[in-house]
Amino acid sequence: MLSGFQNIGRIPELKRRIAMTLALLAVYRVGVHIPTPGINTEALMSYFRAAQGTLLGLFDMFSGGALSHLSVFALGIMPYISASIILQLLTVVIPTLERLSKEGDAGRKKITQYTRYGTVVLSIIQGFGIAVGLERMMSPGDVPIVLQAGWGFRLITVLTLTAGTAFIMWLGEQITERGIGNGISLIIFAGIVAGIPNAIISTSRLVQTGEMSIFTLALMGVMMLAVIAFIIFMERGQRRIPVQYAKRVVGRRVYGGQNTHIPLKINSSGVIPPIFASSIIMFPATLANFIDAPWMKSVADALMPGHWVYSLIYIAAIVFFCFFYTAIVFNPIDVSENMKKYGGFIPGIRPGRPTAEYIDKVLSRITLGGAIYISAVCVLPTFLISKFNVPFYFGGTALLIVIGVAMDTLAQIEAHMLSRHYEGFLKKGRVKGRR
Fold this sequence. Notes:
The chain is mainly alpha-helical and 435 residues long. It has a domain at 1-195: Preprotein translocase SecY subunit (Orthogonal Bundle), CATH 1.10.3370.10. The protein has helices spanning 2-8, 12-31, 41-50, 55-62, 66-69, 78-93, 95-101, 105-136, 151-178, 183-193, 196-209, 214-236, 272-281, 283-287, 294-302, 308-329, 332-341, 353-388, 396-419, and strands at residues 238-245, 248-250, 253-255, 259-265, 344-345.
């Protein structure tokens, strides 16, 4: 692997792409620390420390701490992700979008354009909601977070946050085009891993003060390595359905007759289920910060991480969204029709409807296994925090994103190296991403 990293410096284009990626990510991290005008930063940070475990804490994690500072990048890339998910869902419902998605590169460009417009609209709505919410919020010491409330503050906040999200979206596209890896995913990756130094410092302080023993720290380290290895194994896991194509004679030439397979991933839905499940289950906890009612407080307490009601509903929501999103992104009927059109068939299964039913049956079984795997990884942080007094969030959506993005980026770097006849990172086998 060491020789693989040394080969990177021998490829000028790859070296330039990696340097461009790091430079653009550095620009993003600088913008995270540029505050929005009119905010009492200390009061806002104290409020976020008291709001851990709510939807605000989840968004702050994905924005790399930008939301707790209300920087120009406070909305992060979440409006773009939300717009992308909405467009994917509408593609199934609206025939015009479905036709665009099947028109190749031109159709994808049009859908990307619609996604940008949707990102700006969502940013304006979320920016206005944040501005109005901040005017009503007080820090734990009853200190106002907004220095001077009014329409002036609301307008400047909406313009600043919308421009920040648009700039992040442009940064992500530039990384994808001129750098290495998927730009949007790498921006989320950078925001999550930015909290690693603070986690290391907090853990070392617990060890120094005696609140955490060396044995517990070593046990926790071994457990983390095991979880990471398990996630990599599951993300690469797939069920391959064999497919054969019949031979066709056209003139004097013979076409077809080859054997291939349909790769069905164990986790076809990626990180969408835990994101949706977290957003829904944390919504009451977020409302409790704005609505002063005893019953709302009771509901919010039951839906906080660590409570058995939270874990039960969280797992059920993840399983539901795993099946729901997999049904959207993978259509067994379309796969069966395409196979039949080109003369393909699954050995022992009749073409047409029986093939679609067989693929759907296999997909349902492995999706259930994938849902159980995602649920186990997402519930892990609650166990670690409660049992080992861990001062940071390990597991869940963040860990899935970090490992997945790292695998995809390494796979792209290795593809560049192999295309120029250099050895990859591994002498036996190749690094494979999630795609």
